[in-house]
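subagent[fold] <- orchestrator: predict structure for attached chain, return tokens only, no commentary.
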Amino acid sequence: MSIGDLGKRLLLGRKLRNTQLGETLLPKRVALPVFASDALSSVGYAPDEIFLVLSAAGLAYYTVSWQIGLGVAFVMLVVIASYRQNVQAYQSGGGDYEVATTNVGSAAGLTVASALMVDYVLTVAVSISSAAQYAAAAIDPLQGHEATVAIAAVAFLMTANLRGVKESGTAFAIPTYIFMVAIFSMILWGFFRYVRGTLPDAELADYGIRGTQTIVGGFGSFALVFLLLRAFASGSAALTGVEAISNGVPAFRKPKGKNAATTLALLGAIAVTMGLSILVLGNLMNVRLADVDNGVRLIDPAGKLVPREFNQDPMIGQLAQGIFDHFPLGFYLVAAATGVILVLAANTAFNGFPVLASILAGDGYLPRQLHTRGDRLAFSNGIVLLAGFAILLIYSFDAQVTRLIQLYIVGVFVSFTVSQLGMVRHWTRHLRSETDGAARGRMQRSRVINAIGLTVTALVLVIVLVTKFTHGAWLAIVAMTVLFFMMRGIRHHYDLVARELAVEQHDTSLPARIHAIVLVSKVHKPTLRAVAYARASRPNTLEAVTVDVDDDTTQQLLARWDETGLPVPLRVLASPYREITKPVLDYVRELRRLSPRDVVTVYIPEYVVGRWWEQILHNQTALRLKSRLLFTPGVMVTSVPFQLRSSTAARERADRDEYVGGAVRRGMARTRRREDDDNG
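subagent[fold] -> orchestrator:
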């Protein structure tokens, strides 16, 4: 086994057969942390975003944060109730894309697909960047290097997911459950201390805030309404990840739809409880968060402005520090678990994006390479593509969550809205043909649920677009538009190719004649082998062709050719400018022009070498000729290989690759040896 293959096996593990796909399916206890980590992790930044937006109007408006949280919770519960219908009706893994395509049309399906793919990339970028900020807050040497930490975390997640869904899910399940225990312990202990009257204020409770927005006219003013809507839109980041389960239904064990619906219900209950509790505790403990990037500043107890570079711990960090003020281990557990869950939140996207990309590739909207599974039965190319785009975003925005999150949410609410419209049409279509009363009742209830989901998500989408468009959401919309038309272009290309490749009646007819040409540079073994192969194929006419770039060399070649006694004429093509490729191309095209119904077959002798640096020293002329001849209609190009001694070593290395760990147990090595014995 080569060093490269050994490293790959150490990182990814042994290859899996197609028949082992069932072994990678997830039980509910593993599926919950795999698919719910994104939505659960939103408690690490969604409450912060609500407070940051409200800080623009000053401390007084923090008090409405829990009402905004209730609005977000209501939307989440409606969406989850709606998606419980989706996952049971559509279980192929296409999720919103399949629902929209089937019930609304291909344009709607592509709109959803482009929105989801942009949202998955942003999920990775936002979650990992947020985790990097938590790590920097806890570890001083990391401050200022958040982008580097985030990129390393993306690379780690990519490697873990390349090992397979089940392996990554099992590895990440324990940290996710630890996060749940840590957050619920903090919440319960915090409310217990509040009831006892011992709940302390947050570290920055004595600080004031200098906002950037003056609200005139109180709660009836347009400025305040717009601010509250912006806070609601930012808090709606908590809903990201809900749609991932609908794309990941194939990864569940049977009954897939029922298990996915149960996981959705658990996700909703846990996420809503966590998010609302953190917002309430944030108000009870007087947490302070200032949107420094938009000009909001903290004011210290002495009345002085705090420097912009002052480090503000995230809300969970401030809560944990106060609630566990007599138990430092609890604070560190919450901080560490939150940082880890934010990293693992990106794992939801690593499970959803590759599956969606595979389905789109199967439908011809993305390159075919994304459709196939890798060594570990994961969609490896999709995983690598997602990691690459996420790293690009993290680097471009320097891992700043406040800047990245403005691009967020638009895509997921586009998919929510179109998907719910598709589900309403789905139930309406089935009701036309359903006669059973009980079944009709279930369908009508499902349609009502999806109709409510459509109304709510469409309203939130409008709010998000209006309040976030100028703050960066337009970038996400541009990205979705570009992706939409790119996928349309890819499908158009595949359709054109399919039409060109379709068999017609005259395609089975034989060519009138075959004119064979053997390219000759020297009289040596590769040339003679190519001539022998061409003669054995019995073309109608056969000739050897060389290019005259040096008179003396050409004369020596002619003399040697005559000495071989081959019954094949050697034609010399003039080349006054010492070119090789152009004279051959001109001659071949002239043959085609004179006899359009004939087929010209060009035989090119080639060396086969075993070392990478030898490739540079040989075959460059043959490579250029092949690449040009391939674009000439009616011309067949045949490479005639001649294996040099170094190629034997390469073949032996390839043979050794067959004897990987477990090969003898699976009978592969024994079969290979028997084949070698049979061949002498």
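orchestrator: received. Logging for downstream: Residues 512-643 form a domain with the Rossmann fold fold (CATH 3.40.50). The radius of gyration is 33 Å.
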